[in-house]
Amino acid sequence: MRQTGFSILLLVLLFTNSFKGRAQAYNAVHFHSENELISNSIFKVFEDSKGYVWIASGIGVMKYDGYQFHPYHLADGISDATIFGFFEDSKGRIWLRTHNGIPCFYSNGKFYEAQIPDKYPISHIVSYSEESDGAIIVSSHPNKYLKIHLNDHDQVDTNKIELFQGSFLRDFVSNLNSDNVQSLKENDPFLKLCGKRLEIGGINQFLRHGDAMLFSKKNELYISENRFKSYRKILYDDPIVDMYEDPKSGELYLSFGRAGIKRYKDLTCQTLLENLNEFGSATSVMVDRHGGMWVSSLGDGVYYVRNRNIKQFIPKFREIGIDKVEGFGDDIYFATDQYELFRVRNQTLEKIDLGLEVKEIKQLELIGNSIYLSDNEGRIIDSQGRIRNLGEGREFLPVGDSVIFSTASHGVLFVYDAKTLERIARIESPSKIISRRLLQVGDTLYIATKLDIEKLDLKTWKFYPTTASKSLYCWNKTPNGTVLWATPDQGLLIGQPYKWKSIMDPDGLLKTYVSKIHVENDSSIWLATRKGALHLQIQSLSPLKYTTRKYDKLDGLSSNSIFDIYTTKDKVYFASNRGLNVMYNRSRRKKHRLNLQFTNILVNGKSQSHDETFTMPYSNNQLELELLCIYPQAKENITYKYRLNKRSSWIHTNERKIHFLGLESGEYHLEVIAYDLDNNQSKAHLLHFNVARPFWLKWWFIAATLVAVLGTIYFIFSRSLNRIRNENKLQLELKKLEKRALSAQMNPHFIFNALTSIQNLVLKKEKYEAYQYLNKFAVLIRSILKNSEADKVSLDEEIKLIENYLELERLRFEQQFEYQISISDEVREANFSIPSMILQPYVENAIKHGFLHKKEKGLISIRIFLDNDIMKCIITDNGIGRKASMKINENREHVSFGTRINARRIKLMNDLGKNNFSIAIEDLYDQDKAVGTQVNIQIPINYNTKKYDQGHIGG
Questions:
Q1: How far apart are CA 917 and CA 940, in angstroms?
Q2: What is the DSSP code string of 286-322?
Q3: 10 Å Cβ neighbour count for 688?
Q4: Which of 181-190, 197-206, 267-276 shows the highest mean pLDDT?
Q5: For 582-698, where are the alpha helices, taking DSSP H only?
Q6: Which residues does residue 304 pair with via DSSP β-bridges, in sequence order?
Q7: How far apart are CA 336 and CA 325, in angstroms?
């Protein structure tokens, strides 16, 4: 069981001092060779203008950026492994005080050795200084100083090197802004001030502030405050190792090695603020720009103190948890988790022997002029040493002249007289549940159990009916009766019971475990949580107005796990799992500007300067940025946010690298800001860059593409226009051919012969035959005229026309031929459409050229059937054949319009509609004797007439 204890017992007989020691020390982060340093022997700490902390040691130097220490050795370019200090010139170069006397400096990420000719020998560099013309003064032992100039390439100009005697004298004059070195003679006020015993070169170091000047020699400190007219001398027991002035406060720090550090209010050394001796053999002190104090030591590494207003009780070598803290007069008492009780009296830490075995102290309370504590065995002890064993203890509460003590089980309350500790009453709660917390509000005692809240009337000692409960961590009340109730789900409830107002702090502390509510006064409330301490300043209850202030490790506390808080007029004590902390100044952490840098910019793996706009290719545009916010303990506190353009949303990250890959072409303005937990921010760091347009978006490609597109459009348009013109031309020709086909069908010879045949029948008084002939003739003429108006007709209509025509011709030729028409069932059922007037010319040719000169009876056969998607029409006659007919008609003018027109129509329909029409005429032979002619016509069953329809313009 973790044991914590608090007891304030004043009797000397009970409490004996078993330990006395220094009461307090700074909370410090300790850097040493086992974690991050290259050596524990550190000579100097120094902060440059960018915020980097430099550390000098006997085996190299280190640079701290808030994330890690970067070591540099001889292999990195430093001229000597033993470095005693640093100096920064006006150009930001960091000069090293080397032991071997070879000047060395750091610039733009590299170390350079200042090449000095051998004729200018110096050794052990004491200090550097810079004159108004940029010359660097290197002071060294024995009593020499070197004046050098660097060119633009960080190289020493050997033509401008000057060597003088008197290193300290030259340093002193340089810091007085005087370049007339030779004017200092033996009777100068400075030399008189130094006295005959003060030899040049024996001075360790000097410090100047305005007209005040300090310089040390071993254990002697000389102070001049009126420009050499007079001086004071202070003699110390130990030699002065280092002098440092805080640039913000003006405080002076003197380091004495093992004797520790003395802190003075100013350079007059008249007001000693404190002696610091907890840092081992201190060699130097430095206060950084954030107010943190750095201490280097010889053999114990480096210490960093974040907040000099907070110190810690219990020696640094003991990691002890503190549960409770309480004050009694000017004394502060606290107990540890090691079952120990300590008292702080007159800045001295004392361990208190309780005189009895106490495994765990439950509670510590101040009642009147006495202290009462209870332990885990149900004992209560007052300040007079009287002990009462009350059984199982839980918590006690003073109420007037009585003390109410709750048991750990059975829900029993015991009431004792506060003076005599005699039992007055035993009260049993109605719920029989373990009591956990007691709170008095007026004449009512509130008792928190595991399940609900019970109320006890302190006048009648009777319980009220059980009320609706709320879970709680702890509670307390202010002097004016305002109740404060810390809950796990509703934050801090404030007000009167069941008339609450809720406070939810922005830092989320109230969502964690609240172990203690400490009431300083009606308006100042402190809460101890597992994420730090919260100070609540109540401005008004109606309406509720308040401010909150969080205290945690950023403020210098040793831990964020706070168990108890106690306040005095000028101090705040924090009990934590890592000791007891005391804060002397409650002021807020000061706002400050963070220093953000781009340490590296890589474009496709190559470094790029961010001082100018650059352009990345479209196809390969990988961008990587390395960020650094120079801030002590930055990796715990710093967050970065960035956006590519002002209209973009901020992206937050704790990573120090930002990657971009595959960015679209365009102009970008990257904005990066660093901020800490206190919302201190850096200036927006900007990076302007472009991603080049791809070649297809460049003007020349767009212009070429536009020309090509316009040319293509013009070509396609021209071609389409020509095609349309050709199609229209073909369609016009097709219509003409259709008209000519009509003309061919209605040729005068056929009409004249038909009318002649009708006339003969009339003359022969064959009225019935004449009537039939005339009727068929009329039907034929009407069908021809009807079909001529359509591009295509049904097969039935075309066959009826052919049959009608054949009947008329049979009558006219007196039955000299017969005909047969055969149509397959699938064709007859489908009743396909065919081009109008496509079959008649070939039937007419068979009659006129095949049968006219034939003695035997002729036969015309028409067969129509399907072959895949092709309708085939085969017209066969047994006439004399084409050769014989051509021979008979060779001396006669004859033009076969119908067949030639059909051939042209078929070609035009194939061209216009991408159809597969065909007509083939074949002569039939029987042993080389012509026996007839066969016409093969192929008609696609789904032939295309769209183009003909769209382009048809009439005719």
A1: 7
A2: EE-TTS-EEEEEBSS-EEEES-TTEEEES-TT----E
A3: 13
A4: 267-276
A5: 634-637
A6: 29, 294
A7: 10
Residue 493 near residue 477 (C-beta atoms within 8 A):
no
State the Cα–Cα distance between residues 373 and 393, nearest whole angstrom.
11
Q: Look up residue 380 and give its two tokens.
A: 């209560």
Contacts of 161 (CB under 8 A, 6+ apart): 116, 117, 120, 146, 147, 148, 149
pLDDT exceeds 50 at position 174? no
Q: Which residue has the tokens 């068979």?
A: 846
CA distance 212 to 221: 13
Cα distance between residue 668 and residue 603, in whole Å: 14
pLDDT for 468 equals: 56
- How far apart (Å, rounded) are the C-alpha atoms in residues 534 and 522? 16
Q: Are 107 and 92 in contact (CB under 8 A)?
A: yes
Distance CA 551, CA 561 (A): 11
Phi, psi of 373 (to 5 degrees): -135, 155
Identify the residue whose tokens are 């059922």.
Answer: 829
In single-letter form, the type of residue at position 284 comes to: S
Do 722 and 636 form a contact (C-beta atoms < 8 A)?
A: no
In terms of DSSP bridges, do strands 444-449 and 453-457 run parallel, antiparallel, or are they unpaired? antiparallel
H-type helices in 507-664, by residue range?
634-637
534: nearest Cα among 545, 542, 520: 520
Q: Are 331 and 9 in contact (CB under 8 A)?
A: no
Residue type, 471: S
Cβ atoms within 10 Å of 725's Cβ, excluding its own: 11
d(CA 538, CA 546): 4
* Rounded Cα–Cα distance for residues 642 and 269 (Å): 48
**First-to-final CA distance of the chain:** 115
How does residue 382 score in pLDDT terms, banded at 50, 70 and 90? low
pLDDT in tens, 659-675: 998 888 889 999 999 99
Residue 921: CB partners within 8 Å, gap ≥ 6? Answer: 842, 882, 899, 933, 934, 935, 936
Residue 9's pLDDT band, with cuts at 50, 70 and 90, is: very low
**What pLDDT, in 10s, does the model give residues 27-86?**
888 999 988 899 999 999 999 999 999 999 999 999 999 999 999 999 999 999 999 999
Residue 779: which H helix or E strand, with range? helix 767-787
CA distance 61 to 72: 5
CA-based nearest residue to 845, from 747, 698, 775: 747
Q: How much is the pLDDT for 517?
A: 92
pLDDT for 243 equals: 93
Residue 867 host element (H or E) = strand 858-867
Cα-only R_g, the chain: 58
Q: Which residue has the tokens 């039907």?
A: 779
Residue whose pair of structure tokens reads 């910019």 in the numeric block: 601
What local confidence, expressed as pLDDT, does residue 436 receive?
Answer: 63
C-alpha span between 874 and 824 (Å, rounded): 12
Cα distances (Å, whole numbers) of residue 330 to 333, 595, 768: 10, 44, 154
Residue 269: which region, alpha, beta or left (left: phi > 0; alpha: psi -120 to 50)?
left
Q: What does the mean pLDDT of the chain come to?
A: 79
CB 97 within 8 A of CB 84: yes
State how far the Cα of 113 lies from the Cα of 102, in Å rounded to an integer: 7
* Tokens 């920064």 -> residue: 88
Element (H, E) at 831: none
**Contact indicator for 327, 6 with CB cutoff of 8 Å:** no
Among the ranges given (715-724, 748-757, 788-797, 825-834), the one the predictor scored with the smallest mean pLDDT: 748-757
* Strand partners of residue 530: 532
Give the CA diameter of the chain. Answer: 177
In 3D, which of 540, 506, 548, 499 has the Cα closest to residue 522? 540
* Helix, coil or strand: residue 221: strand
- What is the residue-wise DSSP string for 177-234? T---GGG--TTSHHHHHH-TT--TT---EEEEETTEEEEEETTEEEEESSTTS--EEE
CA-nearest of 273, 223, 271, 270 to 243 is: 223
